[in-house]
């Protein structure tokens, strides 16, 4: 009893400790998790604090989030600019450059070539090696380097700003995004008005690559479109066309030659690779590579050789697309046509091949019996007929020796499987019989030796 | 649209300007579309050089007085089954050559449908030329010169009978197209000239209000 009283008094002591009460003195107990307040008081204090914080941050928020009405806020921002820059741009170097930028920009616009720039930027940086597919990786790296130089600061800032704007407006429709991307192209043009065309092109390429790589996650196959559904539907469709041969499409492909087979695989690989690249021009480069391989395929397949015309080229491309069945082809095509430099898509070699790819895709999407110049029944048979349905499949077999032989192989395989199963059952029976026999034998032996065994057991137990 | 030439200096003279044009080739398969182009671009017929495996896309430059006209020639598949894809090719083309085979009446009929389609669907100021190819096979002629000539006059087409084999009229038809194409600034100048940026104001970029570039 005494013990219990002691502990009780201890508890009372603790409960009466004023430090446990709410800080505001409302009489209720506080809680360290609520910073010593009781729940009611803590809520009041918390709300008050939040309001105060919101008020002090509202300006900053307006700056960060108000990208839509940028121009109206420019004046207001200029007041804050110095402070903000210091907070947000951690690189001191950049901050210092801001002041120089205006003058640099002026020079930039006036000077016909960049060699005369004051910061000693070698002109070689902008007159790089010609942009060939193989060199594009290195030249892009060079471009990024150049982007860091003071003279390119303006472009650099613009790119970053643009990327930021898109990322801050996730609700924008794809069409609007592509619209913005297009205007970005044009805007860069104006800045470089006095530069030779070649330099503009190269810079544009770099800008495009930089921006699109940054934005890829957001703008590729966006949820606001039905790209993904179309992709899946297309993929399923292409899989169901696996019976189409080059002959169906008038494609001059000689599948017997090993060299041709190798090239077909290469071309398919190129198509599949489209999905692994990020920048539109890199994706285009994959398309061009694939098409060059197709030229070689046709050239090797036609006995007379000679130059390859579109009459042969397009069917072969369609066949390769069907065979490769590249993942997300529709999304990729949409992405390129939305965000690639429009000049490249309507004109130029890459534009031609891209148009061909679009044609191939659209042909496959609409592919029907008429397009393959066969009857509807025959088409349906190929599409939906399966080997178990003998009545429908038989006429088909005559035309397709490969599937015929395949069916034969399947038939023998099935027979062998049935036999294997029977044999397995027999084996199982034998095994159970064997087991039973063994059990019987062991039992018999045990019964015969019980008396001896007992004696033995007893002797061993006593010795222990 | 969107043809690209050299960037023009605002104060520079217009002399020596380059105009780039997209030209599509239409016509049934085996009328000799690609032979015609190969003859024009490489000067060859039925010859093969390693560099000319692909004849589906070729470029050739023609000089006209003080301008250089660069043709970008897009071949199309002529088979009937690919007919519906043609609009994708002639989108944005400034010129088209519709080719038929003078020894085959059907190809002339197809050529007429191509012309009709181009006039209806292609860009309104497209220059269309009709080429009756295989003129060297006049003994097997099935399409009369006068028929094609009067049809072309009625429809405002350039018309020539050509032979890729003998090179007859091949360069001439391309030259005639080059002469007929508009070479004013708005058709041929680079995109840098005469276009205003839409939506993005240059001033904005002077204030890096977004910050956060180091994220």
TrEMBL record, chain A:
Cellular component GO terms, alphabetical: cytosol; endocytic vesicle
GO BP annotations, alphabetical order: vesicle-mediated transport
Keywords, in A-Z order: Metal-binding, Zinc, Zinc-finger
Domain VPS9: 228-373
Domain of life: Eukaryota
Annotated A20-type domain residues: 16-50
Pfam family, one: zf-A20
GO MF entries: DNA binding; guanyl-nucleotide exchange factor activity; small GTPase binding; zinc ion binding
InterPro entries per the UniProt record, alphabetical: DUF5601, VPS9, Vps9-like, VPS9_dom_sf, Znf_A20
PANTHER family with a match to the protein in the record: RAB GDP/GTP EXCHANGE FACTOR, RABAPTIN-5-ASSOCIATED EXCHANGE FACTOR FOR RAB5
Protein name: Rab5 GDP/GTP exchange factor
Organism: Desmophyllum pertusum
From TrEMBL, chain B:
Residue stretches of biased makeup (Basic and acidic residues): 198-207
Recorded family membership: Belongs to the small GTPase superfamily. Rab family.
GO cellular component: early endosome
Annotated Gene3D superfamilies: P-loop containing nucleotide triphosphate hydrolases
NCBIfam families: small_GTP
Pfam families: Ras
Enzyme Commission identifier(s): 3.6.5.2
Region (Disordered): 184-215
Enzyme class, first EC level, given as a word: hydrolase
Catalytic activity: GTP + H2O = GDP + phosphate + H(+)
Name listed for the protein in its UniProt record: small monomeric GTPase
Signal peptide annotation: none
Gene name per UniProt: RAB5C
Protein source organism: Desmophyllum pertusum
Major location category of this protein: other
GO molecular-function terms, A-Z: G protein activity; GTP binding
């Amino acid at each position: 009893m005494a013990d219990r009283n002691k502990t009780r008094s201890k508890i009372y002591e603790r409960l009466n400790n004023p430090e446990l009460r709410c800080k505001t003195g409302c009489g209720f107990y506080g809680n360290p998790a609520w910073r010593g307040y009781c729940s009611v008081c803590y809520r009041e204090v918390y709300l008050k604090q939040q309001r105060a914080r919101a008020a002090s941050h509202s300006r900053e928020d307006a700056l960060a989030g108000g990208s839509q009405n940028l121009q109206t806020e420019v004046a207001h921002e200029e007041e804050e600019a110095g402070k903000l820059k210091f907070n947000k741009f951690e690189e001191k170097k950049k901050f210092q450059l801001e002041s120089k930028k205006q003058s640099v920009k002026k020079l930039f616009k006036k000077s016909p070539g960049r060699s005369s720039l004051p910061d000693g930027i070698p002109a070689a940086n902008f007159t790089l090696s010609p942009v060939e597919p193989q060199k594009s990786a290195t030249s892009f790296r060079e471009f990024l380097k150049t982007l860091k130089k003071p003279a390119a600061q303006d472009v650099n800032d613009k790119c970053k700003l643009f990327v930021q704007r898109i990322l801050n407006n996730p609700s924008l429709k794809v069409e609007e995004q592509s619209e913005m991307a297009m205007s970005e192209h044009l805007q860069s043009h104006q800045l470089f008005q006095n530069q030779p065309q070649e330099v503009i092109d190269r810079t544009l390429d770099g800008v495009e690559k930089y921006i699109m790589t940054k934005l890829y996650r957001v703008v590729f196959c966006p949820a606001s479109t039905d790209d993904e559904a179309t992709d899946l539907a297309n993929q399923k469709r292409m899989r169901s066309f696996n019976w189409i041969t080059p002959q169906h499409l008038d494609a001059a492909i000689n599948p017997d030659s090993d060299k041709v087979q190798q090239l077909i695989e290469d071309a398919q690989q190129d198509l599949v690779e489209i999905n692994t690249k990020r920048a539109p021009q890199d994706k285009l480069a994959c398309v061009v590579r694939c098409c060059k391989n197709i030229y070689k395929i046709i050239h090797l397949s036609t006995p007379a050789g000679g130059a390859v015309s579109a009459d042969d080229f397009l069917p072969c491309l369609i066949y390769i697309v069907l065979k490769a069945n590249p993942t997300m082809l529709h999304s990729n095509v949409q992405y390129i046509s939305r965000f690639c430099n429009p000049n490249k898509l309507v004109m130029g070699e890459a534009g031609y091949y891209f148009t061909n790819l679009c044609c191939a895709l659209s042909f496959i999407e609409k592919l029907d019996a008429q397009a393959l110049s066969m009857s509807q029944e025959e088409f349906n048979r190929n599409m939906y007929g399966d080997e178990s349905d003998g009545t429908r499949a038989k006429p088909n077999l005559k035309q397709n020796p490969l599937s015929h032989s395949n069916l034969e192989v399947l038939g023998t395989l099935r027979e062998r499987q049935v036999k294997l199963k029977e044999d397995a059952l027999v084996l199982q029976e034998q095994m159970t019989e064997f087991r039973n026999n063994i059990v019987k034998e062991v039992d018999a032996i045990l019964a015969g030796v019980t008396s001896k065994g007992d004696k033995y057991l007893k002797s061993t137990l006593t010795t222990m | 649209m969107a043809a690209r030439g050299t960037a023009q200096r605002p104060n520079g003279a217009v002399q020596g300007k380059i105009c780039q044009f997209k030209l599509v080739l239409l016509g049934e398969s085996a009328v000799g579309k690609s032979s015609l182009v190969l003859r024009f671009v490489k000067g060859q017929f039925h010859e093969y050089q390693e560099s000319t495996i692909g004849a589906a896309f070729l470029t050739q430059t023609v000089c006209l007085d003080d301008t250089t006209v660069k043709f970008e020639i897009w071949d199309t598949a002529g088979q009937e089954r690919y007919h519906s894809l043609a609009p994708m090719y002639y989108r944005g083309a400034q010129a088209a050559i519709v080719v038929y085979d003078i020894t085959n009446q059907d190809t002339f009929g197809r050529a007429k449908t191509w012309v009709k389609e181009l006039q209806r669907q292609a860009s309104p100021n497209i220059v269309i030329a009709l080429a009756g190819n295989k003129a060297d096979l006049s003994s097997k002629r099935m399409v009369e010169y006068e028929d094609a000539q009067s049809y072309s006059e009625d429809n405002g087409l350039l018309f020539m009978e050509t032979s890729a084999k003998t090179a007859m009229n091949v360069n001439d038809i391309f030259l005639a197209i080059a002469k007929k194409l508009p070479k004013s600034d708005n058709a041929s100048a680079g995109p840098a000239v005469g276009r205003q940026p839409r939506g993005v104001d240059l001033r904005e970029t002077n204030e890096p209000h977004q910050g956060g570039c180091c994220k």
